[in-house]
Structure formats: C-alpha cells, structure tokens
Amino acid sequence: MATTGNGAHGGIALRFNEATKLQYINLDNKPPLYKVYPGLRAISLPDVAELQGPQMPTLAAIKGDDAAGSSAPLTLEKLTTLLYHSAAVIRRRQLSDGEVHYRAAASAGALYPTEIYVVCGDLEGLRAGVYHFNPRDCTLARLRNGDLRRWVASAVGDHAAYPASLVFTTVFWRSAWKYRERGYRYCYWDLGTIASNMLATGNAENLSVRLNFGFVDRMLTGYMGIDGQTEAPSLVASLGTPDGMLPDGPGDVPGALPQESNDLAAGAIEYPMSAALHAASPLQTHEDLSNWNAAVANAAQSEKDELDGTGDRFRPLRSGSDGAFDAGVDIGAIESAGLGDCIRSRGSTRRFSRDPIPWEAFRSVVDAAGSGMNAPGVEGGYGSTLSLYFIVNAVEGLEPGAYYYNPFYNGLRLLKSGDFREMAGHLGFEQALPADAAAVAFITADLQQIERDLGPRGYRMAQTLAGIIGGRLYLGMHALGLGATGLTFFDDSVVEFFSPHAAGQSAVFVVPMGAQGVPNRVRPFRSQVAVSLDSRARGAGQEA
Ligand SMILES: Cc1cc2nc3c(=O)[nH]c(=O)nc-3n(C[C@H](O)[C@H](O)[C@H](O)COP(=O)(O)O)c2cc1C
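Above: inputs. Below: predicted complex with flavin mononucleotide.
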C-alpha cells in the first residue's frame, strides 16, 4: 500500500512523518464508502417498498430455530429482502454539508468496511452469475456470467447445491483510516452486525442461512477479482435448501475480472501488524480447510461453563422460580416490533436516559442474543468461544453490580454488587453512553485458547461472533422501544474489572443498552478514574 500526500514521493523520513501526522480526520485519504464498477450497468432488484418485509416479532426472529430443512424456496424477492435488511441504506438525511446515508446494521465510525457478493444459479428474474451488491441503491452489478456456484462449493468444502451464496469481503483500509491497527478488529465487528441482521431476516423469512467461517481464501479472491489484502473474503453464507450436489470447481482460478472497480486503497497507510495477522490467517488448501473444520468442532466441546459453579449461584433468565435451567425464556411473553420495522428504524442510541428498564426486557434480549446459529461450531450458541459480562446499572428487580452470564445455566451470576456507572463510563472509553445506560454488555474471549485451538483465523471468527451477539443486542433492544450502541473500550481495564472471574480473557465488544435519552445527542463525560489517572501520570502520589 502507498503512503499518503507528500510521503508518496519522499524518502523514509517523509513517509514516516506523513503516516504519523495528527489531525482530527484526514478527508484527503478517506476511502470511498461504496465499491462501484463504473463500467457495469446497475441491475435493479424488486422495489423493497413493495415487498412485505420480515414481519416476525424481532425477538423471535433473533432467537429463531434455524430454518434448515424447512427453508422456503429462494426467490429474488427473498434475496432482496435479505440483502436490504442486512446491509442496505435504509435512511438518508440532508445535512448542511450534504446527504448522509444510514444503513441497516451499525458500523463503527460509520465506515462500513463490508462488501457483499451474490453467487447464484438461475433464479426467476436473475440469471446465474456472480454479482456485486451496491447498498446505496440496492442494486446488483454482474461481474461474471454463468453458474459458478461450484466455485463457492469447492471453496467452503460443501458441495450441496444451495441456490445462492453470499460472499462477504472486507475492505480493511476503510476502518484502518480511522482506527489504524485496531481497525482490523472493527472490520469483523461490523461484519457481525450485518450477519446478525441477516440471520434474523433469514429466520423471519423462513430461509435457511448457513454461515461458513472456513473456506479456501484464494479460491474466492480469484474469482471475485479481489487481491485478498486490500479486500479479502471474510464469511460465506449459503442460502436456502440445497437441490442436489455440485461438481468440483475447475482447478484453475479464472483470470482477472475484465471490469475495474473504483480504487479502494488510494492513499492507504500500511498497518503492518494487522497485515501480518491477516496474511497468517487464510486457509491455503482443502487439507487446511478440513483441519480447520475439525478444530472448530473440537473447540465447541468446551466445558468451562459447566464448571463455573452450581446452579444455585445463578439468577435464571427463564420465567418462574423452578424448572430446568436450560428451559429458556418465553420470548412470546413480551411484545417486540416486527423485524422489518425494527431494522428500518434502527439507529445507535446517542444518549441514554438513566431510567430503569424492565427485567422482562433485559432477560428476553439477553436470552435471544445467545441463541445458536446455523454455523459449524456455534450451533449451540457462542458459549464455547465467547463470554458475556454485564455492568447492571438500572434493571428493575436486579441488584446493580457486575455479573457474568453463564449460557450453560442460562443465568446471571453476581460477581460484585455496587453502583458502577462511573466505572462503566471509564471502561467505555470515557464516554457517557455506558455510564447512563441501564446495562452494559461486555463480550470477552479467551484469545490465547482460541489461537491455540484455531490458529490466527480463530481471531477473525471470535471477533465476528462478538459482532453478531452485539448486533442481536442492538436489534432486540430497539424492537422493545429501547436502545443500544456499539462502543469502544479500554481493553485491559475491562478484564481487570471483571477479574478474577475474567482473568485470561480479552475484551472483544461492548454494548450499552437502555432507555433512550432526550435529546438523543452525545453527552460529554469525564470519570473520576480518568481524573485520578491523569494526575498520577503527572507525578501525583510519587515520592519526590
Ligand atoms: C463496533 C462498533 C463500535 C462503536 N463504537 C462507538 C463508540 O465508541 N461511540 C459511539 O458513540 N458510537 C459507537 N458506535 C456506533 C456507530 O458510531 C454507529 O453505528 C454509526 O455511526 C452508524 O450509525 P447507526 O448505528 O445509527 O446507523 C459503534 C458501533 C459499532 C458497530
């Protein structure tokens, strides 16, 4: 990748200086929000305003038993509904500097690093081919003609003839532009929020959506016409019910695509650690792929939550005070908005009111967010990969304090009681949002164990799963007339706060949840923790 500005023409000193300049943001090297193929005609999809959209109550759609086996046929209308509610522009606002676009799923910094491609056989109204999805106007651009599904089948090692697959790719520079090395993480969280919308929409539309985190990367990069570095495949979703089996893809990757897209990496700054991590994570061969699948299946056998103590230490999420711990919550007991309405009106909460939220709302959303996915290794939920902690500030009937959510017991374990609003604001990057929220979810992962079991690719999967859980919390809260937002955090302080229980974990995603404040505008915040740390950094408390 090139450096920006003068550095592109200078020696190492000038390049270094360019790459380390501080300014609020540098709009000169801001990557484009949309990938476009100027030479290709935009193919219209059915008008979403005329489609019914997913009506299922949101909590049921999040929780839904996966639709595998009973999937409705994949029509162009269903494909459009899925794409639109996963990633399309759902709202436009005219601001003094121009039009701003809001999308179906949240994205850190509104940078939207994820691109989506459709690989399908013949559908009524759409010829077999490889298409790029443009979220701005909900259209497709045809990149390749013909039925190339066998390529995806070979890449994911599943030769079932799904009517279509979605290939999600990541344009790393979009997030790195603002978040630098750390941007690599944000890319997968943002992929996760899209995936959570897609999974819920699939459930609501009775359309099976199977996630594949394992695939031979270069097979996908080859025929998407992407380089695997600037833009790389991140996830494959197989849609609908397979109709037979597909033959193996041909051995050779087809040549470069004739159509050029806009330059996604103009002015990009290189972030070597994230580039090195990414370079270490692809699966190169089918043997790598089967090793990965076996490793994921083994890792799913973890027993850590069974060993977390006996059931009497947990406040169950289920209704009533007796019955089995795994009974789950009766999601039907609380009314949630239809999924389509929920997604079309979703937005990140900018200020929470400090009002308490009902226990019924909290437990229903937490229960739904943890449900299983149609994905190898996480069918039973995320429990073996991720852990979920909370700071509870104001949930009716729940003592304020720090909690661990144990998916095995489907219950909350009080780790320490107290008012932790200030601490939540500090842990959440000195922002008021978590201090004011009714509860804050802290998703953590044992990254050491994940890397040991799954190698560097496990890192991507863990971050994406965290994004999916976070995205579900977003949707669930919004559907109950409440709110949520993704949040940046101070990594080690989060783990320290929840330790010793969280010792050895790493923080991976944070989501404050609660009632929306008025006005819904960001409130400045500064915690006593930060005041104290600043004064100690200036020498306070040190011997002369
Ligand atoms: C991973 C992630 C991290 C985020 N971090 C913050 C944050 O630290 N502070 C904040 O105010 N908003 C945060 N957001 C919210 C985004 O700014 C918001 O999603 C984006 O501006 C798009 O707006 P929308 O969600 O209302 O559509 C985060 C969102 C995500 C998905």
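The radius of gyration is 23 Å.
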